[in-house]
Specification:
Radius of gyration of chain A: 24 Å
Number of helices of chain B: 10
Order of helices and strands of chain A: HEEEHHEEEHEHHEEEHEHEEEHEEE
Number of strands of chain A: 17
Oligomer: heterodimer
Distance between the termini of chain B: 61 Å
Number of helices of chain A: 9
Strand content of chain A: 35-45%
Largest sheet of chain B: 7 strands, mixed
Helix content of chain B: 10-25%
Shape of chain A: globular
Strand content of chain B: 35-45%
Strand order of the largest sheet of chain A: 3-2-1-4-5-6
Number of strands of chain B: 22
Shape of chain B: globular
Largest sheet of chain A: 6 strands, antiparallel
Structural class of chain A: alpha+beta
Helix content of chain A: 10-25%
Chain lengths: 443, 480
């Protein structure tokens, strides 16, 4: 297989990096290398807008002189550049401080099994085929309804790459992976109201992509339903996060239990391990070894083995999200999360989206959030929102130019129901989430 | 100027042995199809960063990025390819792929290589060696220890220092070859304070197109620490923020991200050429009260958002966006300017050689007005005074924008009374400036911390404004 040859070649380069680090006096080292190439096309108003050929490569090295550390990276993979990069990292390590928590992972935590996670599915798409697909998608959106008035276009992206990493403990591994996507964004106009929305599909395997027509239709539908949105009066009410916005809520939770925020004591969930963070019915777990999933990996960014595990069981926090350094700072062990979580999953409930609307009864359905208004230290939460006002389980009218606010600590505890309308397009897999009560600010 | 060009040639081309003649070969390959525009963008960027945390120098890193991007434009179509290998065969292949976007047409030849002259707004300097490594370490340590001395409630101090030395070279199909040397430095101090179990944070930083000595001048670095601590301590006292529509007074300087989000993005040429912006087709119309004049200006000396030339080789300028409340024009790159029948305003920017240029802001700010800032506060019976912000976002089609206050106070009976927690403010871009009823005489630019994201591309920008009074903006607090 051509890939295996290329992986072996890159492994040799990583080994050269590690050898060079040793030669320059480093007591330990870690190196990584990546090569990616891809194609992106976008079609707007039926015409090709851009045709882009991507080709990226880069290497990074971290060296340790005892407990002192230095890092360097470059896009130039030549032999001369390898020497220079290692020497740049070494010269930095002469100035950083002794840090008793720094260093490579414990040998026994490194991954030793490397199952085929089926992450590599090349797509024989050329520019012409990609243009045809994007055109089909945009056509479906534009012909969906006469109020679809303009377009930002449809795009096809196809990327494949190889990642190799190694360290001076003898770890040296690599794998190939692909990622393909199809997306569409259109505008609708009615009177003075102009709105834009989008839909997309992304997968490791192009066969798993949603059809071009379905993506176009959904983009159009989502845009149309936003027309003539209004603000709400300031009030308190229950809020239903649709699956796409719910993943952001879980993202904030993950941020709060991540090692970096915990050891810096800049988290609203300090010392929450073993305590009730969610209601009893909530289970959140990681599934790093799912075949062909977007967040799958046999090892993390440091080579530590990933493991399926529960993060929340019965609403109680079971574990943090740690890499080697933050684990040592907390007196714990790495959880295989250097670089983040892997297919984080919140167990779905029994209700579908319509059932969740009925459960909400009267309140706000949030379909879009804007801005960064989340304070990790205090959990204070205040974000711009758009969505729909719901009465008796029925969507009444679109809502915009409002904010929703609360404190994340309370919001997580006040989750009432989780839908089974799971969004599988990201590294966080969740259905819609209903939160008991939040403050809405509007006109 | 020839010196500048030679410097860039040396930094970007010499390591890979590329000559001017090779640039002509690549360009002539692009021009074998009928194109409206073609360019080759060479870039070499060296950067470093240092972080002090927990009282130790914890991290240091160094990175080198280099490569070239090749682009051909015909009508509204763009073909683009790039490589991190600045080598003739690689770039010829890229050019061959790119011109496939244009299927037929006449052949042309690149003009004779010529160089233009333009003013420069920052020094030709490599910031990385401007301080010896030990001096950088000392600077971090001094800021750390001086900041920790400021208050016993300080729990943690994180100080970071980073610098970039970038050389670019842009070849256009008319034969013009433009170069720029772009230094950029940045420093930041963030602190966490604790009192009676309550924890809060504060953060302050700055920088610009200069070298590291910028931070020791006027005790800037130490002042970042003081300001971060002041903000964190204010937040320790902050109560619930109000919720609802109210009069909002924005402080001078960084709160100018209001202009960046509410107005700026909506006035970028690409959205307006395509008719997807809430401001599309509105040149000549009133979009703000007559107190408001807003400009985008890439020519401010040494500012973080400044550029001598943009990434298409066009010299930057001061572009008037809104004059006395009337929309005057948009920010343009070459492609959108050509399609709209206007001139590029020097706003064609790209994150790197691996990204396509598009219209982007440089330094966006509002000119000062008549009022004393105290007078403005005095005029408010009940409202919010927002002094610092964390960031913002806009939907350019609906015009809805948000920005998040990180330091805010209640105004009651013309007086600033007590601090309230940070809250998101939301409004409608085309409306918000029509509600500006007072403009202060205290124009300030931000300290040099802004980074703007668009279509996944990040570029450094600046903002600024005088104190502003807005009669009605929705404040997203919890106190209903």
């Amino acid at each position: 297989m051509q890939n295996q040859e290329q992986i072996n070649q890159l492994k040799n380069t990583v080994q050269d990096l590690l050898d060079e680090a040793k030669k320059q006096g480093a007591t330990a080292a870690e190196a990584g290398l990546s090569q990616d190439n891809g194609l992106s096309v976008s079609v707007r108003l039926g015409e090709v807008e851009t045709l882009e050929y991507h080709c990226d490569q880069g290497l990074g090295v971290t060296v340790y002189f005892g407990q002192r550390k230095g890092s360097a990276s470059t896009t130039d993979l030549s032999l001369a550049s390898i020497k220079e990069t290692v020497s740049a990292a070494c010269s930095i390590a002469r100035f950083t401080s002794e840090d008793s928590f720094s260093g490579l992972p414990e040998q026994q935590l490194l991954a030793t099994e490397f199952p085929d996670l089926e992450l590599y599915h090349p797509w024989d798409v050329n520019a012409d085929k990609a243009i045809a697909l994007a055109t089909e998608c945009e056509d479906a959106a534009r012909s969906f309804h006469p109020e679809i008035s303009n377009s930002e276009g449809a795009s096809v992206n196809s990327h494949q790459g190889i990642r190799v990493m190694g360290n001076s403990l003898g770890f040296l591994q690599g794998y190939a992976a692909t990622r393909h996507s199809l997306s569409c964004s259109v505008l609708a106009q009615r009177g003075d109201s102009m709105q834009r929305d989008y839909w997309y599909s992304v997968a490791r395997n192009a066969l798993h992509l949603e059809s071009a027509v379905s993506i176009g239709n959904k983009a159009a539908e989502r845009t149309l339903r936003r027309l003539e949105g209004r603000s709400l009066s300031t009030r308190q009410c229950p809020v239903l996060y649709c699956a796409e916005t719910a993943s952001g809520l879980l993202g904030s939770f993950i941020g709060a239990i991540s090692g970096g925020n915990l050891y810096r004591k800049s988290s609203f969930l300090l010392d929450a391990l073993g305590t009730q963070v969610f209601p009893e019915f909530v289970r959140i777990h990681e599934q790093p070894h799912l075949k062909a999933a977007l967040g799958s990996a046999a090892y993390d960014g440091e080579g530590v083995a990933t493991k399926p595990r529960d993060i929340v069981t019965g609403g109680i926090l079971q574990g943090y999200v740690l890499g080697t350094y933050s684990a040592r700072k907390l007196g714990m062990q790495s959880t295989g999360n250097a670089g983040g979580v892997h297919n984080l999953t919140i167990d779905p409930g029994t209700l579908d989206f319509d059932g969740m609307l009925k459960e909400l009864n009267t309140g706000l359905l949030v379909t879009e959030l804007m801005g960064q208004g989340v304070n990790m230290v205090t959990g204070d939460y205040s974000r711009g929102a758009a969505g729909f006002w719901v009465e008796n389980g029925q969507i009444q009218y679109p809502v915009e130019e409002i904010t929703i606010a609360g404190n994340l600590k309370d919001m997580l505890k006040n989750i009432v129901a989780i839908g089974n309308d799971v969004d599988y397009r990201g590294n966080i897999r969740t259905g819609s989430i209903l939160v008991e009560q939040l403050s809405i600010a509007g006109e | 100027m020839t010196d500048l060009l030679n410097l860039a040639r040396q930094a970007v081309l010499t390591p890979s042995g590329l000559q001017d003649g090779d640039i002509e070969k690549i360009m002539n390959c692009l021009l074998s199809a009928s194109v409206d525009d073609a360019d080759i963008y060479f870039q070499s960027s060296h950067s470093e960063s240092w972080v002090m945390e927990g009282g130790i120098i914890k991290e240091g890193s160094h990175s080198i990025e280099q490569g070239a991007g090749v682009r051909a434009v015909s009508g509204e179509k763009t073909g683009f390819a790039y490589s991190d290998r600045i080598e003739l065969p690689v770039l010829l292949e890229a050019a061959g792929n790119v011109k496939a976007i244009v299927r037929h047409g006449q052949q042309a030849q690149m003009g004779m290589i010529k160089t233009a002259k333009w003013p420069r707004y920052y020094p030709i300097v490599n910031p990385l060696p401007s301080l010896a490594t030990l001096q950088k370490i000392d600077l971090l340590k001094t800021v750390d220890s001086e900041t920790r001395k400021l208050d016993p409630r300080i729990e943690e101090v994180i100080v970071s220092l980073s610098g970039t030395y970038e050389n670019i070279l842009v070849a256009n199909q008319d034969g013009s070859l433009s170069a720029d040397v772009r230094p950029l430095v940045r420093m930041n101090v963030s602190v966490i304070v604790e009192e009676n179990g309550r924890r809060e944070q504060g953060s302050m930083g700055g920088g610009g197109r200069s070298d590291y000595n910028y931070f020791t001048e006027q005790e800037r670095a130490l002042n970042y620490g003081k300001e971060a601590v002041r903000q964190a301590l204010v937040n320790l006292e902050a109560g619930e923020a109000p919720a609802g529509n109210m009069t909002v007074v924005l402080g001078p300087g960084w709160p100018g991200i209001l202009l960046h989000e509410a107005i700026g993005h909506g006035l970028e040429g690409d959205f307006n050429r395509k008719g997807t912006s809430a401001f599309s087709g509105r040149v000549g119309e009133r979009v703000a009260s007559d107190l408001c004049t807003v400009v985008d200006d890439g020519t401010l000396p040494g500012r973080r958002g400044s550029l001598s030339i943009d990434d298409e080789g066009t010299p930057t300028e001061q572009t008037i966006l809104i004059e006395n409340g009337i929309l005057k024009g948009y920010m343009q790159d070459k492609l959108n300017a050509r399609l709209m029948g206007v001139k590029s305003t020097g706003n064609g920017r790209r994150e790197s050689y691996a990204h396509l240029p598009m219209p982007r802001m440089t330094n966006t700010y509002m000119l000062p007005g008549q009022h004393d800032p105290e007078e403005i506060i005095k005029s408010v019976k009940k409202g919010l005074y927002a002094k610092n912000f964390a960031g913002g976002q806009v939907d350019i089609t609906s015009g809805k924008f948000v920005f998040s206050a990180s330091e805010a106070y209640l105004i009651e009976d013309g007086k600033i009374t007590r601090p309230v927690k940070g809250a998101t403010l939301i409004g409608n871009g085309p409306d918000v400036l029509t509600k500006v009823s007072m403009v202060g005489n205290d124009l300030e630019l931000d300290s040099g911390v802004g980074t703007c994201g668009k279509d996944g591309q990040s570029v450094p920008v600046g903002v600024g404004q005088p104190t502003l009074k807005i009669d009605g903006l929705t404040v997203g607090g919890t106190s209903v």
